[in-house]
UniProtKB/TrEMBL annotation, chain A:
The beta subunit is responsible for the synthesis of L-tryptophan from indole and L-serine. Keywords: Amino-acid biosynthesis, Aromatic amino acid biosynthesis, Lyase, Pyridoxal phosphate, Tryptophan biosynthesis. The gene is trpB. Pathway: Amino-acid biosynthesis; L-tryptophan biosynthesis; L-tryptophan from chorismate: step 5/5. This is Tryptophan synthase beta chain. It comes from Kibdelosporangium persicum. HAMAP family: Trp_synth_beta (MF_00133). The modification N6-(pyridoxal phosphate)lysine is found at residue 105. It is an enzyme of class 4 (lyase).
From TrEMBL, chain B:
Its EC number is 4.2.1.20. This is Tryptophan synthase alpha chain. The keyword Ribonucleoprotein does not apply. NCBIfam families: trpA.
């Protein structure tokens, strides 16, 4: 097994052979399929990020916030009791759930909020599904004194009411989106409408590694710290690299962040798990890479869920954070190039893994991350006792207790 | 040769601006949209934009979003747009399609261009396709003789304007404000400035749209642009019935013939 060059001190912002081309393409995926009115803002953002990623002041300020404010590096925890249910393979959890605000989202949010200040903009808008990205954005805006407006589908404001309260407590304005399917994709549509109207004063702090260039590159680089730390920790604690890295994929930001730590380690399998919802055959799922086809949505060419007319179809998952009919373009590229594999996990399998990790390790995972845990169980059975698996535990499950209580019947006299 | 060029030769000869009206195909129904569009042509629209309803219209405000949603709920299919264009063209109207790009990409860019040309359509307005991503569309439009109407916006830099002009044909769509579609009380003063900046690079006709709803606004824009583009106001009227559509088209048609100096409209 070869060592990464300088794997111990990389920050994630280095230029390397995995950068997209100058038009923002990873192979045939990516680009800018977006109104001309937003092109100047995207060019400004690209130029600013290109400068910032090479600027030690910017990178060091970000690293300082990540350590002193967000709590990085996040832990690597072995999960031996959970692993017994996974063919006896070794299972290691990258604990993004322990970051401030409870998920990996803070990595990207702090980076983009600092960029917003660099660009001299005072107002931030963002979309959110489950509320993790919205809460993280509202947090960074409170910290850095930025005005904050969060767009959230009305369906999601209802199923994640506590996160709405959290964002408002942090000083953000939360706008329930009542158009279309009233979920994440419609929140993005509404945020884009705001952005095209207020682009001069406003930065769109996008929450996943998707949309138009430079977002897929920039968001990925803000999350590469996950994989850089995890690789170092695996070598130190397990004494070897994993056979496979498992992560959940909605838009795909935690997955791309952890995958990149191992992307040049050809023997390490990179495995993404999408939501199969009520089962692929039910038609109610969010398995974009497994079941979708290439198309254009929210500013880039990537796989998406669409009908034969190119109308975007509604995604479904028990997890609001995976309930999205698109996916970041680099995942489309990794799928077609064969470097990464993508499978899907149903609501029931994910909830079983959710309960299992809670009971065997005392860790309540986010339902999003539970899709990766369910995948790890399958991988463990496949690899057997010699297998070593790294799981991206992208978030904690506190926000999901209402859903879990209903699913398992945990509340009330008969519970 | 641009097939829209003849329209603008005529309006320029009459020393007036052209009136361009928009309605989504399938709103209120497929046949209903063909009737409304035909009425718009009869009542003074020199060009009509036949919208292709899309599930995720990020450049549209509430009026057009709701109309598109209704059309899709009513079972609108992409191929219906050709039927509507054919109906408009058969009565002598000049029709272009306005569409988000994914449905065209999915249909096949060349196949869409071929079927649109066969239906008598003259070109496509592409609100979320920038010239940098348009190689396939440029090739298909050349093959099938269609015009390429790209957008420029107040935020567009000189460099972007030059690049966009170079790949456009028929006319250029200048967005009057930074924002989405929807009727507004006043047209921003960004529009004349944008038209002046575009004019420095081309003689191609320039249409101004976003927010236009009255004859007075049309007259104001007609003073400095080659076409006045009206969308949401027609969509609102179409929801009320065809008489209101005719009245609005008549008022706007008068407006584009008045050419009030900017700032003098009440």
């Amino acid at each position: 097994m070869t060592e990464h060059n300088g794997s111990d001190d990389r920050t994630g912002h280095e230029h390397d052979s995995h950068d997209p081309d100058e038009r923002g393409y990873f192979g045939e995926f990516g680009g800018r399929f977006i109104p001309e009115a937003l092109i100047p803002a995207l060019e400004e953002l690209s130029a600013e990020y290109d400068k910032a990623r090479l600027d030690p002041d910017f990178v060091n300020e970000l690293l300082r916030l990540l350590s002193d404010y967000a709590g990085r590096p996040s832990l690597l925890t072995e999960a031996p009791r959970f692993a017994r249910h996974a063919g006896g393979a070794q299972i290691w959890l990258k604990r993004e759930d322990l970051n401030h605000t409870g998920s990996h989202k803070i990595n990207n949010v702090l980076g983009q909020a600092l960029l917003t200040k660099r660009m001299g903009k005072k107002r931030v808008i963002a979309e959110t599904g489950a509320g993790q990205h919205g809460v993280a954005t509202a947090t960074a805006c409170a910290l850095l004194d930025l005005d904050c407006v969060i767009y959230m589908g009305e369906v999601d404001t209802e199923r994640q009411a506590l996160n709405v309260a959290r964002m408002r407590l942090l000083g953000a304005e939360v706008v329930p989106v009542k158009t279309g399917s009233r979920t994440l994709k419609d929140a993005i549509n509404e945020a884009l409408r705001d952005w095209v109207t207020n682009v001069e004063t406003t930065h769109y702090l996008l929450g996943t590694a998707a949309a138009s260039h430079p977002f897929p590159l920039m968001v990925r680089n803000f999350h590469r710290i996950i994989g850089i730390e995890a690789r170092r920790q695996m070598l130190a604690k397990a004494g070897r690299l994993p056979d496979a890295v498992a992560a959940c994929v909605g838009g795909g930001s935690n997955a791309i962040g952890i995958f990149h730590g191992f992307i040049d380690d050809k023997d390490v399998r990179l495995v993404g798990y999408e939501p199969a919802g009520h089962g692929i055959e039910s038609g109610e799922h969010g398995a974009t890479l497994s079941e979708g086809s290439p198309g254009l949505l929210h500013g880039s060419r990537s796989y998406l869920l669409q009908d034969e007319d190119g109308q975007i179809t509604e995604a479904y998952s028990i997890s609001a954070g995976l309930d999205y009919p698109g996916v970041g373009p680099e995942h489309s590229y990794l799928k077609d190039s064969g470097r990464a594999e993508y499978y899907s996990v149903t609501d029931d399998e994910a909830m079983e893994a959710f309960q299992l990790l809670s009971r065997t390790e005392g860790i309540i995972p986010a339902i999003e991350s539970s899709h990766a845990l369910a995948g790890a169980i399958r991988l463990g059975k496949e690899l057997g006792p010699d297998g070593v698996i790294l799981v991206s535990l992208s978030g904690r499950g506190d926000k999901d207790m209402d859903t879990a209580a209903k699913f398992f019947g945990l509340v009330g006299e008969d519970a | 040769m641009s097939r829209l060029a003849t329209v603008f030769e005529a309006t320029r000869a009459e020393n007036r601006a052209a009136l361009v009206g928009y309605l989504p195909a399938g709103y209120p129904t497929v046949d209903g949209s063909a009737e409304v569009l035909t009425a718009m042509v009869e009542s003074g629209c020199d060009i009509v934009e036949v919208g292709l309803p899309f599930s995720d219209p990020v450049m549209d405000g509430p009026t057009i979003q709701l109309a598109a949603e209704q059309a899709l709920r009513g079972g609108f299919r992409v191929k219906d747009v050709f039927r509507v264009v054919e109906r408009v063209a058969s009565t002598g109207g000049h029709a272009v399609v306005m569409t988000y790009w994914n449905p065209v990409y999915r249909y096949g860019v060349d196949a869409f261009a071929r079927d649109l040309a066969a239906a008598g359509g003259l070109g496509i307005i592409t609100p979320d396709l920038i010239v940098d991503e348009a190689d396939e569309w440029v090739a298909a439009s050349e093959t099938h003789g269609l015009d390429r109407i790209f957008l420029v916006a107040p935020a567009s830099t000189e460099e972007r304007i030059v690049t966009t002009v170079a790949r456009s044909s028929g006319f250029l769509y200048a967005a009057s404000v930074m924002g989405v579609t929807g009727a507004r009380d006043a047209i921003s003063n960004a529009a004349p400035d944008l038209v002046r900046r575009v004019r420095a690079h081309t003689d191609m006709p320039i249409g101004v749209g976003l927010g236009v709803r009255s004859g007075a606004q049309a007259a104001e824009i007609a003073a400095y642009a080659d076409a006045v583009i009206v969308g949401s106001a027609f969509v609102s009227q179409a929801g009320e019935g065809i008489d209101g559509v005719r009245t609005l088209a008549g008022e706007l048609a008068e407006g584009v013939r008045s050419r009030v100096a900017a700032g003098q409209a009440s």
